[in-house]
Amino acid sequence: METRSDDFYPTRLERPSDSFQRLDPVVHSQGKDREDGPLSETELAQYERDGFLVFNQFLGPSTVRKFREDLRAYENDQSILQSEGTITEPGKQEIRSIFGIHELSDRFDWLTRDPHILAMVHQLLGSDAYIHQSRINFKPGFHGKGFDWHSDFETWHAEDGMPRMRSVSFSIALTDNTPFNGPLMLVPGSHKTFIPCVGRTPEDNYQSSLKKQELGVPSDKDLDRMIDQHGIQAPTGPAGSLIIFECNTLHASNANMSPWPRSNLFFVYNSVENQLTQPFCGNKPRPGFLGNRSDTSALQAVDAREVQRTG
């Protein structure tokens, strides 16, 4: 497959290719837009250095409790269990992820439009944004499988046609994150380097990759080099904690060997100036619940008082 002229991050190649420094800024806002946002200059500098930020107890206990009640309802809703956007563990019927959750839940939709969150997004992306993807991740006690090392941007670029590194992920814990229940692991500083991956992407690769990702993962050699240079961090904290991480930050999680489940809300903001094109792997686009193409207008903030009255 020939590389497109608009492909600044070639990947899914036939043979290994050297990694290279990212071509896009990490924080896209400048001047007054950068200075006036809710994130301090210290926090922005940390995000630029590490590729992620952690805020413990971002959501209060009552809000987390309502989301957990929603989660239990989804586990018993046959229409959701049978939806294409519901991914089960390999060889089992236990839920791994439910995608497109902001379209299923008014409460989740309101959260994605929270004024404080959108202000942080605008500060990081330097523009308005829309939801590229949303989901709830489940990792039940004893049986929850892990997620292999990867850069989200590599997948979104290759399989969804996201042109540039101008998106950011928000992950909010619905359960306590401990060292034992498979917390998110991140490689600080890895977001500054793009690692091309090897292997032609088959059509409908998502049907297997969402259960276990085998394509779009860096080689052991590349991972060894990056982790030897930067190390690994695994933030832990109580339910309601927030992790914001840059789209190219390498991350993974171990299996949950503990009796304590781990679940989190996950939503991705993409700049309205970074709309999806045809996938760079040469295949047809993935379904909309993985890469939103239909509702890409700028998100409008929702008044928190209105949410409290109706939620």
List the helices and strands and how they pair.
Blueprint: E1 20-21, H1 31-35, H2 41-50, E2 52-55, H3 61-75, H4 78-81, E3 86-88, E4 95-99, H5 101-104, H6 106-112, H7 115-125, E5 129-139, E6 147-150, H8 152-160, E7 167-173, E8 184-186, E9 193-194, H9 206-209, H10 220-230, E10 242-246, E11 251-253, E12 262-271, H11 304-310
Architecture overview:
The longest helix has 15 residues, at 61-75. A 7-stranded antiparallel beta sheet has the order 2-10-7-12-5-4-3. A 3-stranded antiparallel beta sheet has the order 6-11-8, with helices on one face. Strand 3 and strand 4 form a beta hairpin. It contains 11 helices and 12 strands. It has helices at residues 31-35, 41-50, 61-75, 78-81, 101-104, 106-112, 115-125, 152-160, 206-209, 220-230, 304-310; strands spanning 20-21, 52-55, 86-88, 95-99, 129-139, 147-150, 167-173, 184-186, 193-194, 242-246, 251-253, 262-271. It is 28% helix and 19% strand. The chain has a single domain (20-310), classed as q2cbj1_9rhob like domain (Jelly Rolls), CATH 2.60.120.620. 43% of the residues are buried. The model is unreliable at 307-311 (pLDDT under 50). It is globular, with a radius of gyration of 18 Å. By secondary structure, it is α+β, with helices and mostly antiparallel strands.
User: How many runs of DSSP E, i.e. beta strands?
Assistant: 12
Overall helicity: 25-40%
Q: How would you classify the helix and strand content by structural class?
A: alpha+beta
Distinct helical segment count: 11
Task: Note the quaternary state here.
Answer: single chain
> pLDDT average, as an integer?
90
Q: Could you state the CATH homologous superfamily?
A: q2cbj1_9rhob like domain
Describe the biggest sheet?
A: 7 strands, antiparallel
Radius of gyration: 18 Å
Order of helices and strands: EHHEHHEEHHHEEHEEEHHEEEH
Uncertain runs are: 307-311
CATH fold node name? Jelly Rolls
